[in-house]
Amino acid sequence: MRIFNTDATIVHTTHEGEHVRRQAIGLGHVNSLALLDVLMDLPVGTPVPISSVDTPNLRVLRKAPGGVVRVAGSAVTRLLMPVVTPVLAVVYASGWRDGLADASEFASYLPRMFVVDELPGNSDEALAEASWYGIGVAVGPPSAPAIVLEPEPLPDWQPTAAWWRFCERVYGFHVHGESVAHV
User: Fold this and answer.
1) What is the pLDDT of residues 117-128, one digit of tens each?
2) Residue 132: how many CB atoms within 10 A of its CB?
3) Are 17 and 8 a contacting pair, CB within 8 Å?
4) Structure confidence at residue 182 (pLDDT)
5) CA angle, 85 as apex, 88 and 31 as ends, to 5°?
6) HEC string of the chain?
7) Would you tell me how many other CB atoms lie within 10 Å of the CB of residue 153?
8) What angle do CA 164, 177, 5 make, to 5 degrees?
9) Rounded CA separation 166/3 (Å)
10) What is the pLDDT of residues 37-61, one digit of tens each?
11) pLDDT at residue 178 greater than cutoff 90
């Protein structure tokens, strides 16, 4: 997929129940950062008194597409949940510096690595730099690279509205091949 102005493979898992629910009601990916931010504060499937939601957030919820929330009586219930969970971004780079830069774009969202044809001449120093940033490295042709440095998990990672929007855009690409160039 094309994202952050680079081509990347986003390895992800899919929550099949949420995928089937969305397909049944015709709901694709949700791109509104404001809406996802409000939804982050609501539990999934549990009615919340409307009186506990402030007016600006309630306005955002009332504009949500069908299938995102249910407003019934004096309660609002969040129905939407992330449908994919990205677990690794793989960037295919023509050069070492490009690989480091492009893989770094994913630092806030998930572990990442890049694939290059060959290591640079100063391979120990180059791998130490990639390790410093937590970026994994694989070497060889894109069809069968060998991992020479494992990507590191994100330390103290917490989901954010921006992460959820990233997930939604990955889902949009996964289901419909939609462009997700601007996150």
Assistant:
1) 999 999 999 999
2) 9
3) no
4) 33
5) 110
6) CEECCEEEEEEEEECHHHHHHHHHHCCCCCCCHHHHHHHCCCCECCCEEHHHCCHHHHHHHHCCCCCCEEEECCEEEECCCCCEEEEEEEEECCCHHHHHHHHHCCCCCCCEEEEECCCCCCHHHHHHHHHHHCCEEEECCCCCCEEEECCCCCCCCCCCHHHHHHHHHHHHHHHHCCCCCCC
7) 10
8) 70
9) 10
10) 999 999 999 999 999 999 999 999 9
11) no
Is 139 within 8 Å of 119 (Cβ atoms)? yes
Q: Check if the beta carbon of residue 30 is closer than 8 Å to that of residue 22.
A: no
50 sits in the region (left: phi over 0; alpha: psi -120 to 50; else beta) called alpha
Amino acid at 51: S
Dist. CA 88–CA 108, nearest whole Å: 12
Strand-pair category, 136-139 with 112-116 = parallel
pTM, full prediction? 0.88
- 53 residue type, one letter: V
